[in-house]
């Protein structure tokens, strides 16, 4: 059951006073025009730092968002049918409680209110998380993180044109591959590391140290995924290029298909229930049926139109497809009796959503990671919520064993996190 419900963010560095205090100087009734513009740096200021109709606030009460989150109300109790089996899970409308804002002046190091600030002075607000390491070597946006199964090396790619190898025991960068081109995606599958570049995909076998270049893409390769032993790459020109294993001596990969349907760049891919789903800058989601036996069946089966801006991320979770968008929404899709997909629930954030990732803990509680354009990652242990904050937006997640997960942000910072209760990756 997917329930998005906000809870107050804990670990707030807010003055623990219970009495009401007046803002501004004694007898002052005028609102500070510089505060309204977000530029007042006086503490104390003789004018009000609040709207005229609310000159008092409770010092231990978190700040509430002005805009009330929106959600679907018409479809919150539908039962979805997946294929020939009834899902039997209801999408429940949440009860919203707003969380405090992160103090933007504190993140820049110039908040003048200190512990008296009514907004959050903390990078993350969940005591179930701890930071194991911060790996700051990349100079630009991190676009992919991979931890191959059984490997003690972590791999990261960036638009600074490098792929870095990190020792998981020491946290040190042990190798830098300079590609002289922006890395816009990076994934691993078995012993292979795949790196998305302009007009090509680089494939490295970490066991044999062999390297191959997969030709076929036109423009930047923005997203990749492996499904049914087929490598799919979403490209800047809106085409999805597919390769499968080959016994040819010159290359272990064979170009088998180009899926045409999107009118703009393909920016995210996911595979689930024998379907390939692609999200695009054309605001649509397309679904293709996968068949490992017959490549001719890789045809677009349906187009999902629900978002009003770029579809930024897709994940398959249990019987559902989750999609996020720059339109500030996360949509939960489920199959109907007719075999189509329709929106069962829409959750609204206050900022555009950059990326999604999901896990399930030992008690089968759903944990959803939601990266937003306000540089926060919203962490929903459905139905509760926490968050942690970054200097730039997080564009990539990677899940590891034993409760480990990795984030890469716009500054080039790769952060290693540890969830204190062991989690499982959300199943497809």
Structure description:
With 428 residues, this protein is an all-beta fold. Helices cover 2% and strands 48% of the residues. It has 2 helices and 31 strands. It has a 6-stranded antiparallel beta sheet with strand order 10-11-12-13-14-15, with no helix packed on it. A 5-stranded antiparallel beta sheet has the order 27-26-25-24-31, with no helix packed on it. Strands 5-30-29-28 form a 4-stranded antiparallel beta sheet, with no helix packed on it. Strand 6 and strand 7 form a beta hairpin.
The largest sheet is: 6 strands, antiparallel
Structural class given helices, strands, pairing?
mainly beta
Strand order of the largest sheet: 10-11-12-13-14-15
In DSSP terms (H or I, runs of 4 or more residues), the helix count works out at: 2
Return Rg in Å: 24 Å
Give me the oligomer status. Answer: single chain
What's the end-to-end separation, in Å? 16 Å
Percent of sequence in beta strands = over 45%
Please tell me what the overall shape is: globular
Q: What is the helix content?
A: under 10%
The overall pLDDT average reads 75
- Total beta strands: 31
Low-confidence stretches: 1-28, 51-99, 291-295
Provide a short characterization of the protein structure.
This protein is mainly β and 428 residues long. Helices cover 2% and strands 48% of the residues. It has two helices and 31 strands.
């Amino acid at each position: 059951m997917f329930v998005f419900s906000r809870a107050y963010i804990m670990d707030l560095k807010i003055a623990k006073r219970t009495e009401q205090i007046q803002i501004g100087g004694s007898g002052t009734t005028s609102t500070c025009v510089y505060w309204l513009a977000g530029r007042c740096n006086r503490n104390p200021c003789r004018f009000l730092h609040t709207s005229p109709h609310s000159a008092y606030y409770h010092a231990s009460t978190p700040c509430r968002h002005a805009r009330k989150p929106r959600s679907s109300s018409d479809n919150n109790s539908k039962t979805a049918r997946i294929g020939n089996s009834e899902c039997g899970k209801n999408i429940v409308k949440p009860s919203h409680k707003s969380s405090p804002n992160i103090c933007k002046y504190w993140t820049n190091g110039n908040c003048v209110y200190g512990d008296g600030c009514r907004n959050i002075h903390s990078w993350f607000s969940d005591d179930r998380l701890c930071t194991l390491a911060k790996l700051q070597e990349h100079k630009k946006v991190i676009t992919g993180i991979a931890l191959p199964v059984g490997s003690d090396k972590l791999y990261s790619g960036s638009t600074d044109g490098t792929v870095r190898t990190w020792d998981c025991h020491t946290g040190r960068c042990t190798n830098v591959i300079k590609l002289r081109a922006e890395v816009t995606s990076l994934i691993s599958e078995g012993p292979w590391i795949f790196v998305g570049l302009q007009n090509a995909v680089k494939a490295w076998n970490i066991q044999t140290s062999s390297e191959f270049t997969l030709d076929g893409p036109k423009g930047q390769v923005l997203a990749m995924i492996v499904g049914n032993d087929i490598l799919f790459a979403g490209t800047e020109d809106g085409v999805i290029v597919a390769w499968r294993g080959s016994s040819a001596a010159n290359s272990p990969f064979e170009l088998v298909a180009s899926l045409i349907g999107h009118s703009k760049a393909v920016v995210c891919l996911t595979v689930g229930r024998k379907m390939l789903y692609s999200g695009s800058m054309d605001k649509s989601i397309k679904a293709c049926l996968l068949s490992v036996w017959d490549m001719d069946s890789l045809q677009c089966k349906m187009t999902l139109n629900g978002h009003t801006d770029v579809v930024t991320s897709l994940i398959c979770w249990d019987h559902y497809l989750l999609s996020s968008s720059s339109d500030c929404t996360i949509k939960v899709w489920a199959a109907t009796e007719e075999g189509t997909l329709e929106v069962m629930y829409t959750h609204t954030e206050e900022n555009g959503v950059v990326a999604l990732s999901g896990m399930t803990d030992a008690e089968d509680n759903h944990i959803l990671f939601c990266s937003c354009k306000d540089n926060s990652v919203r962490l929903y242990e459905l139905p509760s919520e926490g968050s942690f904050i970054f200097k730039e937006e997080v564009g990539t997640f990677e899940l590891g064993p034993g409760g480990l997960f990795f984030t890469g942000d716009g500054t080039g910072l790769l952060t290693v996190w540890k969830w204190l209760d062991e989690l499982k990756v959300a199943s497809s």
